[in-house]
Amino acid sequence: MTQNNSRFIKLFDKFEKLEQNLAALLIHNYNLFKLLKFEDFNPLSHDISDEDIQDMITEFDAKLQRNPNCRVFFEPFTGTAEEQQKAQIRIYPAQVNPNNVYLGDLYVQVDVIVNQRISKIVGGRRRNRIASELIETLNGQDVGLVNDFRIVDKPVLAIRQFKGDFWGYSMLFTTGVSAIG
User: Fold this and answer.
1) Domain ranges of the chain
2) Chain CA centroid to CA 86, Å
3) Whether residue 43 has a cis bond before it, omega within 30° of 0
4) Model-level pTM greater than 0.85?
5) Which 8-state DSSP code applies to residue 146?
6) Nearest partner of 32 among 104, 112, 134, 157, judged by Cα
7) Phi and psi of 132, rounded to 5°?
8) Please, are residues 87 and 120 in contact by the beta-carbon 8 Å criterion?
9) What is the phi/psi pair of residue 180, to 5°?
10) Angstrom distance (rounded) from CA 147 to CA 180
11) Which tens digit of pLDDT belongs to each residue from 99-135?
């Protein structure tokens, strides 16, 4: 019994690596980070640097203080004192379904959250464009786990109100985890 339990526990070993691998994929999508950073009507018209992008995926500074520029979080939205007009992405493990003592299906929720005051942009809605950029960047990619990272197709997007004026989409992706490597 103990051996089986330790194998189930090993299914969780790669969660941290998943966050790093997803961030490594996202940082190459400049349009995504322009949509997250610039709050005006035409966010894609701005330039953005690699340093800006790195800052936007760094949740805490060297003194462990919350980085106000962070826009990509690897934890669920808590709805605490979030009053800033901004867009953000939340990526986190939502569910693990062990198939056996060696393999499991990992479901990862990706939330696109946009304050309604900055929702409208040239050509449509910010949340729609962010969701499109995320799907294009992440779907079908190798994330260093057992299976490629794939969007779950039913439903692809679920619209939600996260808090007050914060609306957006929840998407579910899946990959595989292994207790043996």
Assistant:
1) 2-178
2) 15
3) no
4) yes
5) S
6) 134
7) -60, -45
8) no
9) -120, 20
10) 14
11) 887 788 999 999 999 999 999 999 999 999 999 999 9
